[in-house]
Amino acid sequence: MADALEQLESEVTSCRRCPRLVAWREEVAQVKRRAYIDEDYWGRPLPGFGDPAARIVVLGLAPAAHGGNRTGRIFTGDRSGDWLFAALWRAGLANQPASVARDDGLALDRCWVTAAVRCAPPANRPTPEERDNCSGWLRSELELLPDVRVLVCLGAFAWDAAHRVLAAPRPWVRFGHGAETTVAERLLIGCYHVSQQNTFTGRLTEAMLDAVFTRARELTAPA
After folding, report:
1. CB-based contacts of 170: which residues, under 8 Å, 6+ apart?
2. What's the rounded Cα separation, in Å, for the pair 130 and 181?
């Protein structure tokens, strides 16, 4: 299974299906942000990462232009990741509370982190076509992670993408923080995205985020 995940990673990182996303991710990697002017940007699609024996998948929207698109790992090196990895650490799903680089020693336990769209999109807004182009990568990941029982969907975009990938029959349960629904023997839990728009305004608090991961851990605990 580990070999298959490595092969999938190779395929994901070489993808060029979406011209708009390819142009944007590479432009950002060349122009750079002043704070990171001396760094080599990743500038490619991002694979998921974590524990191949994961029972929980955390599904985000897409890499941040100067976060994952810079560091080469989803949620690594940006404010959203600061919130997410701190919460995973508090839940016992990560070995450290922060992640700033691909080689910083972060290891996940029984958890896998990925995104619905694998390239940084302009204005953080992928198109429906780009979402659909990326759906096969998530489908393949889930096939290679047979122990997964819970998907924590960060935001409505991820909630929608998970329903599509799992071929959920309509009508779908409406997204909301703490919403739950079972699709193809996997439980989806809705969670407000860990974006600054939510964390800075108090729409998402640490306590709310912790409650989601406590629930996910309870649902995946050994019998």
Report:
1. none
2. 25
| Total length of the chain | 223
Q: What's the confidence (pLDDT) of residue 222?
A: 82
Q: Interhelix angle for 128-143 vs 156-165, to 10°?
A: 60
Domain 2-220, classified CATH 3.40.50.300, yes or no: no
Query: What is the per-residue pLDDT across 189-201, written as a single tens digit (0 to 9) for each?
Result: 999 999 999 999 9
Under 8 Å between Cβ of 46 and 63? yes
Look-up: residue for tokens 């999938």?
Answer: 8
Q: Are 64 and 38 in contact (CB under 8 A)?
A: no
The two tokens of residue 116 are 């619905």
* Cβ proximity of 89 and 95 under 8 Å: yes
Domain boundaries, the chain: 2-220
Which one, of 108, 112, 134, lies nearest residue 121 by Cα?
Answer: 134
